[in-house]
Hints:
The complex is a heterodimer of chains A (126) and B (332). Chain A is an all-alpha fold and 126 residues long. Chain A has five helices and no strands.
Amino acid sequence: MRPDRPSVDELLEAVEEFLRDHAMPNLPGHLSFHARVAANVVGIARREFAQSDQIEADQSARLEAILGHEGELRALNRELCDNIREGRIALDDSALMDHLQKFAIEEIGVDNPRYSTYKKAMEEAG
Amino acid sequence: MAIADFEDNLALALSKYISSKAEMANLVRLTAGASQETWSFDAVVDGESRGLILRRPPRGVPESKERALRQKSEARIIRIAYEHGVLVPEIVFEAEPEDGIGVGFVMARIEGETLGTRINRDEMYAEMRNNLAYQCGAAAATVHKVPIDGLDFLETITPEETWERNWESYNKVFEEPSPVFEAAFRFLKERLPEQDRVTLVHGDYRNGNLMYGTDGLRSILDWEIVHIGDPMEDLAWICVNSWRFGNIDKPVGGFGQREDLFAGYEAQSGIKVDPERVRYYEIFGSLRWGVSCRGMAFTHLDGHDRSVERAAIGRRSSECEADLMILLGEAF
């Protein structure tokens, strides 16, 4: 990745601002709505770029603790999902529930941090 | 079918079905959704104007035979519901193929608001909101009281079948499994309810498909996925967080409380609501919407209907994952 400015994030930020501040107010109804969605999509991409390394490291660590061995994130996730599907782990297992709660918050934090459930969780976490 | 032909044919249909003197005025297209087209117009007879709505698939052409049947069923069930005092518009006529307006039906136009955010926030609805959850409960009970004898044109869906269908869709559209959806599927499978009461179920009973005025609930819209099943599905679906439009602490549509919804239901039906069962179907509802969101992204991803809106909706399944974890957390 190019180390100098504008960074990828700064470029995407420019696109997001253009869509939100210029395209949205100047387009007719349906297209304006699509411009808003497009701005949100750029927001998802920016958050995913910024957060995915940390999220993947955290998820891998939690999965390794539950499954008791190391591995690549995708394979670990599939193994856990198989275990849930086949009934090899109790649904109320506290490590599983902890992982699922955190997983859900990580995903929504990238995809839509304005969603009510995320905002409420953040308020409760202080 | 060209638009000009469509307008002429619709005007002709009015003279055929309403009155030979009927003239058409003020034709406007209200929505151009992917699944439905809605047109509003007036039929004028001797200076008396009657507001009407035409519902039909895009351009009047159903994408499949099954879709055409569903359109017919929708008109039929609205007609039957109307006869049983459910808050629905009167069906005026169903178009025949020779009318040249496509597979559609015309019903009375009821004026009102359907935008969930307005219902939940506008000052003009503040007073009416106090009683709205109760009204929605009572109105759902009227749907569930429609006798199901003779409704064999509708599908009967058991909770197990709903589970199977969603499981199949989930496995198709999630290339990487989601541990949250996996846990929710297992939770629901292990607790499939006994079907002790089977009724007409609206199937999409939520804020957004209900029409309101300052006087309260006026009409129940969008009967596209009406079926025979467990009535508690309807009471649960209106509580799913996806339709609260940010008002997370008002579980009924973002405007009311469950106790009021249940009280209205019980008063109208005489049947006690089991909140646990409603909660079960609320989990089902979040799961179902989450799987649908991901599925809708595939109309974009497989090139069928490319749009940024379709692509983006695929990520909305995360909203349901977050809601599912609240619900599952409360269940244990």
